[in-house]
Structure prediction request, 552 residues.
Amino acid sequence: MSPAAIGFLQNIFRRLEAAGDAPVLQEIRSEKIVSATGSELLSLVTRARAFLALKGIQKGERCALLASNSIRWAALDLALMAEGIVVVPLYARQAAAELTVMIRDSGANRIFCENVELRDAILGDCREVPTPSLFDEIFATKAAQERPAKLLESSESVTIIYTSGTSGEAKGVVLSAGNVDFMLARTTERLDKLMHGHAGPERVFHYLPFNFAASWIALLSYLSRNSVVTLSTDLSKLADEMRIAEPNYFLNVPALLERVRAKVEDGIRTKGGWIAALYANAKRAYLAGTAARLGDRVALAAARTLLFPTVRKTLGPQLKALICGSAPLAVETQKFFFMLGIPVLQAYGLTETTAICTLDDPAFVEQGCVGPAIPGIEMKLGENQEILVRGPNTFSRYWNRPEETAKALRDGWFHTGDQGEVNQNGRWKITGRIKNLIVLNSGHNVAPEPIEEELANSLLGAQVMIVGNGHSYLAALIASANSAVTREQANAAIEALNSRLPHYRQIRAFHLADEPFTIESGMLTANGKLRRDVIATHFRSQIDEMYRKRAQ
Prediction:
């Protein structure tokens, strides 16, 4: 096999050398920008590599990287890969107990921590892990003479990324140099299409944690290009940071886009008067398409001149597109941004597929779909509409889990566990998770995700989980992530939804939770997906009460 390091790592280092004194990475600190030029980032990488050599860390060893996003995170990650060390990136906001399980499972013999607080959290939970080294110590090392990156065969491991574990137990996904080399070629191809004709460095904003596969692949893609990447350092100030960054594009999760949509529409409703009326008529025309009434078409044209440019300016005057993945995006939210003139490009994938299987083509987006399979990989439907994937993007194995690996990789195909459908244009739609199927005692099988998505979309800001396995009907747990949902609002939304559904998919009872589903409570995974087993256990008495009341 040819050495994969000649691909993505060498490309990144050549790009940084070419950048020289131009900024490539920036952090927003108290509304001020702290930049690192190409030369400065390379210097940090060299210092980190000197530290690794000084400590005698060898190629093939596993090291945990525990830190929030930063310039130094990127530098240390590049340094570790350049030394042929397998990186185990961890989520800085995760519970210490969960982190120590991953550290021990991976067999990491070194831990690199951003600060004393993270180090003490790990040591306080378990002293049976290696003593962490702090970033300050690593980057204080005297820089040695620059050396080329160690050559990695395509099959050699570069990272073990732990999946968030919707059932509560995370698995380490082993990705190879070949996986990453293949994927970066494809992401770069799509970004070339998006930015065709753009002059000068691309401006990118980034807020998703680097320990997630899609976020990490995005970072490596940006560093391979003529771009300036601005890193968020305070999730509570995302709107302000976006305005400072003025990005051309950035990676998103649906939750953020849906919050933005809710905030904009609430603001317009609050203004009232002719602005609210214009928006309502324009939106009706956009959703109706060619069937729109003449008056609404006039309103849409007026809104595109008088209203939408102002909204776009608040979101980012240089935005060419938003990229979205990790979970289903409500089609109404995608249409909202397209109506404003901001395309939302969707992607679908899993950690096991090096983050990506499908990517929207900027030249042809079908709203509500997640795009076609990327060139070079195959996708098909198996039993129960399960999506199967085969290609250079699929992972080699789960770390220390041969039985799980054999179950997921069968006959050369990775069984994703996701249900989907594909249309005549080759555009895919994700419809649910196999293991989340609810089997009613009537024998009907119900995928909960589409129902949850539609109800949550009707109750902007709400979180919804459908239950009903083994019962005669469905019920809903509704939590409020932002403003509280009233019983009247929930009743109205459920009645409207039920009117469009067959009897066995209708919601017959609901409970309004007095607390949101959060990462901190363990009810959401690190990237915001429902931990259904945890939620069902936490609300067991309320779920039982919903079914007891209906039975009376």
